[in-house]
Write a structure and sequence with these properties.
69% helix, elongated, single chain
Length: 163
């Protein structure tokens, strides 16, 4: 099997993050973009990847392979086209990597937002449990009075009066 394209990697990354097939995510992103703006961003980057980088990579690879096919000695005037195609291919591959990195950042932002949303609820639950353990007195009953504060410092010197 040939290497996965950038589009395949982007699709896999998005499907894994949202735990749904890409077709369902596409319809959600179009119909309800306000519900999940991060999904909308990821799908937008994926669309740009589909249109520009992924197809450009394929076109430039085919052109470069045609110019450098086995058994074919390139003519002098082909050298400029080969160099130009190779440079264009590198640019298209860099654009693909940038798009993949952007999708990765969107996925990380989604994970961070999900963690941040859970964090306050977790802290509130922990505080409630701590308070409930501390406030176990019966209604109408006065809680235990605190003892005298502990004295911190060096021991008091003995006076000779007690001897």
């Amino acid at each position: 099997m040939p290497d996965a394209t950038a589009l395949d990697e982007a699709t896999t990354m998005i499907e894994k993050a949202w735990d749904r097939p890409i077709e369902a995510l596409e319809s959600i992103a179009v119909r309800r973009p306000i519900d999940d703006p991060l999904l909308r961003s990821a799908m937008h980057i994926r669309s740009a990847l589909l249109v520009t980088a992924d197809s450009s990579v394929a076109v430039h690879q085919e052109r470069l392979h045609a110019l450098t096919r086995p058994g074919h000695a390139p003519a002098f005037y082909d050298l400029q086209r080969i160099t130009s195609s190779a440079a264009d291919l590198r640019v298209a591959q860099a654009e693909s990597r940038s798009a993949l990195q952007a999708i990765s950042h969107v996925v990380q932002a989604r994970e961070a937002a999900a963690t941040a949303d859970r964090a306050p609820a977790t802290r509130l639950a922990q505080a409630a449990v701590a308070r409930s353990g501390r406030d176990q007195h019966v209604l109408g009953q006065v809680p235990d009075q605190p003892g005298p504060p502990a004295v911190v410092g060096p021991p008091a010197p003995c006076t000779g009066a007690g001897r």
